[in-house]
Backbone:
């Protein structure tokens, strides 16, 4: 091969190699473009900056201290007590740094809602207070005057007299809260005023046994002294009032609870004008629908508010609501938990007519009810927690002994009921004891059939064929439905 021919061959090979490389580069570039378009990694989210929020909302938060004038209890810490494991309002703690104060004192927080000096705090912070002192951010102290209080929602409105406008905290919309949303708390934990902590919304609509409110749960660190202070969203709006913690030690364990600000907004006008809250009233006792209760009633879903009893003089009775009805909707809002019903009724303006959807004997019905002013005792019973609604059962299989309710026995027990079956004895460690049945409970119905004596009880209980038995039990002035599955 000639030299020139050899050069031509090498040139051709080089050109072919360059072509392949170029083609490969184009293909690789195209491939990376496709990968980038299909699986582009999201931009990293940076943590929120709470500096501006703290600067803006800090002046609206106050320190609230009270003196009841009574002798104080020992200030020993409950830490280490195995029984100290509960939901706690913060006011159970004494004021720090004063182990044996001369008078019983309470320390908490609050926030200004009006430039004229109106302040929201917890009712338990000012409970039994003879003297209320408010310290604002600049260190000035004022004498506080109680304007209104409501123990049900644990909200109080106090007033300080000032000669200048104060910075007021904007109130947000707690119904728009989402789980995982960032929040910030400001308060006086253990007396360290204007401490700022941050976290997220851990849950919403949390019900705590024995409380009227549904709570916002947060992991923002809140401790004794934060009580009554604000929980704030990233827009700088108050969305809750810090009120309780769940603790084994007396300090924050990352589970705190705040009263939704929408409930507070509903109450402010009444607290300012009347000093108290008048709630709507339905006139029923309710209990939650457990899976066992749902099974015994033949329900597909264990949800709703079961009417355990109807007060004779209440609006529910007038509307035709009956014991055993299952309320599944109130004024267009679905009811999933029994405690939702007292909340919705309580927030309904007195005199309003609302529609209830309920299930009666597996049939869906709709009734209209006119809400009347609240009766506080009945509301307490109507919002009875599931832990207060025990279970019951049959005789041998449940470990109980029964007696006919005679007029003499009724007189002895101090009850007006003249017929039924009385629980006279409960065997230890039996299904009845585990379920919470008490001696002197009166069984009125078995599987929705009235029983006037023990013989009638036995007939109806045997018809259950070993399945859960649905009982209607009267304990003192309260009746409740109780499902029990016989042992074995």
Residues:
């Amino acid at each position: 091969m000639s030299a020139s021919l050899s050069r031509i061959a090498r040139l051709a090979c080089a050109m072919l190699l360059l072509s392949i490389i170029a083609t490969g580069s184009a293909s690789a570039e195209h491939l990376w473009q496709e990968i980038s378009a299909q699986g582009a990694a999201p931009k990293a989210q940076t943590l929120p900056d709470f500096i501006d929020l703290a600067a803006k909302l800090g002046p609206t938060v106050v320190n609230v201290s009270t003196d009841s004038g009574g002798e104080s209890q020992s200030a020993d810490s409950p830490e280490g007590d195995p029984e100290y494991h509960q939901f706690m309002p913060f006011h159970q703690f004494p004021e720090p740094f004063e182990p044996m104060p001369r008078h019983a004192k309470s320390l908490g927080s609050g926030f200004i809602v009006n430039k004229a000096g109106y302040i929201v705090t917890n009712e338990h912070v000012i409970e039994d207070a003879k003297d209320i002192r408010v310290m604002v951010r600049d260190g000035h102290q004022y004498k506080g005057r109680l304007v209104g209080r409501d123990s049900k929602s644990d909200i109080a409105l106090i007033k300080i007299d000032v000669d200048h406008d104060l910075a007021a905290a904007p109130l947000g919309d707690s119904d728009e809260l989402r789980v995982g949303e960032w929040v910030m708390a400001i308060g006086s934990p253990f007396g360290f005023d204007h401490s700022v902590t941050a976290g997220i919304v851990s849950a919403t609509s949390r019900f705590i046994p024995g409380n009227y409110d549904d709570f916002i749960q947060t992991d923002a660190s809140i401790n004794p002294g934060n009580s009554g202070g604000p929980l704030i969203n990233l827009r700088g709006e108050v969305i809750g009032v810090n009120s309780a913690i769940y603790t084994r030690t007396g300090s924050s364990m990352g589970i705190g609870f705040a009263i939704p600000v929408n409930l507070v907004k509903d109450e402010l006008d009444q607290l300012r004008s009347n000093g108290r809250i008048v709630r709507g009233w339905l006139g029923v006792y309710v209990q939650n629908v457990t899976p066992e209760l749902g099974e015994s009633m033949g329900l597909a879903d264990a949800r709703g508010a079961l009417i355990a009893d109807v007060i004779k003089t209440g609006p529910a009775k007038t509307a035709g609501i009956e014991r055993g009805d299952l309320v599944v909707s109130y004024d267009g809002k679905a009811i999933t938990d029994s405690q939702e019903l007292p909340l919705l009724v309580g927030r309904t303006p007195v005199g309003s007519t609302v529609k209830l959807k309920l299930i009666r004997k597996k049939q869906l019905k709709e009734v209209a009810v006119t809400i009347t002013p609240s009766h506080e005792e009945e509301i307490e019973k109507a919002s009875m927690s599931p832990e207060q609604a025990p279970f019951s059962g049959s005789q041998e299989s449940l470990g109980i002994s029964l007696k006919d309710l005679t007029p003499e026995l009724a007189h002895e027990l101090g009850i007006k009921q003249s017929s039924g079956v009385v629980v006279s004895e409960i065997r230890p460690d039996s299904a009845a004891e585990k379920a919470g049945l008490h001696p002197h409970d009166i069984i009125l119905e078995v599987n929705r059939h009235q029983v006037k004596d023990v013989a009638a009880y036995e007939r109806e209980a045997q018809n259950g064929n070993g399945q859960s038995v649905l009982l209607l039990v009267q304990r003192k002035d309260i009746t409740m439905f109780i499902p029990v599955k016989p042992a074995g």
